[in-house]
Amino acid sequence: MKRRFKFESSVSEYLKRFMKGGDAQQEAPAEIAPGAGGDVKPEKTETAVPETDAKSEAPEAEDRPQSVLCHADTNVGRVRATNQDALLIGEMLWGVADGMGGHKGGETASAGARDGMLELLSGKTPAIDTLREAVETVNSRLFEQQKQDEKLSGMGTTLTALWFSEHYVYIAQVGDSRAYRMRKGKLEQLTQDHSLVAELVRAGVLTPEQAADHPMRNVITRAVGTEETVDVDVIVEEREKDDLWLVCSDGLYGMVEDSAMEAILSVNTPEASVKLLIDAAMASGGHDNISVVILRDKEGGR
Largest Cα–Cα distance of the chain, in whole Å? Predict the structure, then answer.
């Protein structure tokens, strides 16, 4: 991943005023520090689960339906020397972690998030609290790890994880990797980016078109492992037969328009789509590591 920074709230407010044409010069903070902890956080989005679900809805681990097919791959891209992305592939649990913090730090953070989630959720029944607590535990572990090793100082990772129960998909989101769902031919982004430009779009300061090419589009406002605590968005969606789920790092969607991704997914098998999506990102420059997970729900939830 390209180097990213978190911003203090004063810096974010300055940028918002600057975008609106305010007197930024006088009010600009003296320094924008790499790795600075920020409190610029979008409003948390959490979808309520029907009362029949929660912790009692899903069957025991050994009885979980193996009705989801997974195809996934990751590529270093054309520019980066190493791949700091990690694919999360477990028992009805899939996702992407996109590390930051230099060569060693980024790989350590993303691998730690992947391994921690697999360990903490193995054999568990899908539930909102269980998923959130797993991410919080992983965050604490990575934060303590970087405190003990100065070579890892400033490391962190995005994390987007999908955990399937019998009827629902529980999605955990921190950072700007994304989860999409394609249902009846329409691709929809389900997660909300925790990034500076996304904040500015939601505030009406930038248009989506301006955000796409903004020089600060890689600045994230939340990450796993960078601070002692982390805010985790948890979204719950109902499963339907033939849904396609796409989880990806910004190395894909930053290079390939959503409309192009939808077109590829519409006319190709999931297995072929993984390769074609990566090829499209490479053809557009391959400026970052590219990770793609595509899930096909063969049976749906009901």
Answer: 62
Tell me the average pLDDT of the chain: 84
d(CA 266, CA 261) in angstroms, rounded, equals 9
Domains and CATH numbers, the chain: 9-38+84-239 (3.60.40.10)
Closest C-alpha among 231, 201, 229, 226 to residue 216? 201
d(CA 227, CA 248): 24
| Mean pLDDT calculated for residue range 78-91 | 96
pLDDT tens, position by position, 105-116 = 999 999 999 999
Asked whether the whole model's pTM tops 0.90, one would answer no
118 vs 116: CA distance, rounded Å: 5
How many residues are given for the chain?
302
pLDDT digits (tens, 9 = 90+) for 144-176: 999 999 999 999 999 999 999 999 999 999 999
All residues at 6 or more sequence positions from 233 whose CB lies less than 8 Å from its CB, including other chains: 44, 45, 46, 171, 172, 173, 174, 191, 192, 194
